[in-house]
């Protein structure tokens, strides 16, 4: 399909731009004074809450599709996508106004860095996967949607849950 080719390109462009922007915001230079120009100290807790909410929505969406409640499934999954998008905006704002990642100072360094590394890699991978899954469902390509959703769901769940775990390990 010609339309598939167009949306495939768009999905990969959006995914690449988001991944590069987030990487730059975490590791790149900041203009002078950005660290103190806005208090964003509440955002990590908000981000963890959004991740937790997204996890619940993903589980609910899965239960709904198992019950063949497609309309409710669609609403819940679009809400999960919206929550993840809200998380991304909040995460970008946090890292724009706070330079560099917070360093882990706990006793479980190996576990923390394993979770962090897998979280980062899978967070990059989940962007195009979630977009393709959403596109396939939206365009009623249900066989393709089911096929990719079986892979997308566990990865998206892991990214959401590990985001909460990372927050807990860093801030509690």
Concise overview:
This protein is mainly alpha-helical and 172 residues long. The chain has helices spanning 2-27, 34-37, 43-66, 70-97, 109-138, 142-171.
Give a topology summary.
Elements: H1 2-27, H2 34-37, H3 43-66, H4 70-97, H5 109-138, H6 142-171
Q: What is the number of beta strands? A: 0
Q: Topology as H/E string?
A: HHHHHH
> Hey, roughly how much beta strand do the residues contain?
under 5%
Q: Please tell me how large the radius of gyration is.
A: 17 Å
Question: How many domains, in number, for the residues?
Answer: 1
| Mean residue pLDDT | 94
Which segments are poorly predicted (pLDDT under 50) over 5 or more consecutive residues?
none
Helix and strand content put the structural class at mainly alpha
Note the main sheet: none
**Distance between the first and last residues' Cα:** 50 Å
Shape: globular
**Structure annotation, total helices:** 6
Question: Helicity, in percent?
Answer: over 70%
Overview of the molecule:
The chain has helices at residues 2-27, 34-37, 43-66, 70-97, 109-138, 142-171. By secondary structure, the chain is mainly α. It has one domain. The longest helix is centred in the last third of the chain and has 30 residues, at 109-138. The termini are far apart. The mean pLDDT is 94.
